[in-house]
Amino acid sequence: xxxxxxxxxxxxxxxxxxxxxxxxxxxxxxxxxxxxxxxxxxxxxxxxxxxxxxxxxxxxxxxxxxxxxxxxxxxxxxxxxxxxxxxxxxxxxxxxxxxxxxxxxxxxxxxxxxxxxxxxx
Length: 121
What we know:
Layout: E1 9-13, H1 17-29, E2 34-38, H2 41-50, E3 55-59, E4 61-62, E5 65-66, H3 68-76, E6 81-85, E7 101-103, H4 108-120
Helix pairs in contact: 2-3
């Protein structure tokens, strides 16, 4: 059986190293072989400009900066994405409230469900 993320190119924008390592492990379990990561807005936007991604997972707050420019770059290229956040104030998703948000801390099942939803829409 094909795994959910088999052959998919995934961008993970996350500034917490331990969370990033956990996410990478979970994505590997889902069959993802191509995970690209960024910890800053500038790095993420540069990666989006340079590469093609099938889906992205975006932390709302990157070291005190909003990830809004990253969301704009993803939308401009038609890359589906969802937010991952420890923030309870989802108002920070200005202009992108229609995008799903995965609340930290999350479990493997939650990550699987949100990737399934985002990739099928």
